[in-house]
Amino acid sequence: MLDTTDTPLKALLRRRKPGYSLEAPFYTSPEIFDADMEVIFGRHWIFVGVDPDIPEPGDAMSLDIGKNAIIVVRDDDNEVRAFHNVCRHRGARLVLDYKTTVGNLVCRYHSWTYGLDGKLLFAEHMGEGFNAACHGLKPVHVRSLEGLIFVCLSDDPPADFDVMAAKMAPYLAPHDLKNAKVAFEKDIIEPGNWKLTMENNRECYHCAGNHPELTVPLFAYGFGFAPEELDEHERAEAESYDKLLKASHREWESCGFPSEMIEHLDDMVTGFRTERLPLAGDGESHTSDTRAACRKLLGRINDPKHGALHFWTQPNSWHHFMSDHAVVFSVLPLDAERSLLRTKWLVHKDAVEGVDYDVENLVAVWDATNDQDSTLVGYCQEGARSPAYEPGPYSPHTEMLVDKFCNWYVGRMAEHLGR
Description:
Naphthalene 1,2-dioxygenase Alpha Subunit, Chain A, domain 1, 2 domains, 4-stranded antiparallel beta sheet
């Protein structure tokens, strides 16, 4: 448990200056990393995968959140369940593969056998007084939000997940992720603290100079700009984009696709943000030519030009839902200076590779962007180690959402530590 007395971490939290990046120990200290894992990743809803990761009863997926090994499984009633991946006999891991299909969960050490509901079904040679009912798998709270799977390791998970779910379900439902499939997924190890990965995602100030692929389908004025720096031509372009955004929202919402921005990044425990945005060029998808990457559209969508729905959650995810495919991202901390970025590309479950979509085209934009961002995060991590590092000011026009991420993080840490 965390020490409730005054600590260096509490002092750092107290003196955090709004509108500025965090002090170096937040990115480099193993002690603060341990606190992050206990407070942030141990007590909040963490995005870990999608329903298509475990589409059928008996399908299971394993993952680690810090020291916690987790199993996510679909049971015989088609419900998603989660358990600690720890046998109740002598602690061996039950599921060793990332993804697998099982009839029951069987420990390879001594064959203790659990049902998909976590109940202990078989334990040989345990004597007459042994009570199997007391030795089921330890459950983990799990929720599926229209196909996005979140877990919470706390015994008392934040109740405002229900608020987010109620607001987000109408936005996500048209894309029908439960009837999609994972066409491709990729893990990369980013050489930086998990907060640097998240901060990098929360702004596009860096995009123009670093993401030639990503900026093809994006409008330059969609992620913030300084109005006082625009010339007459640029002001006209910004005004045109604003008109396009408003017109697109009206059109999409008239077709049953909620689009208006909802933002609760730093005023809810389960912080989130969403908005549907128009795409540049042919305006269909996050591809190098901005055309749909998959012929078979998702869910009940019948027009490839319904823009891109963005959905961010605190502390560890961001997602993009287009008419033809979706890309989901999760960040799982490994240590104070390394993070796992897991990306999955989803298409309609009936889409056929090589006929309806080409994997290379499907993944090209975000595969390149992830590699570029990983390099940038590494630069920031190297800088945070330097004695010359000090918190720098965020741009009020293009980095306001980074500031909100830091506000949320500091607020959550401070509340649990009793600042």
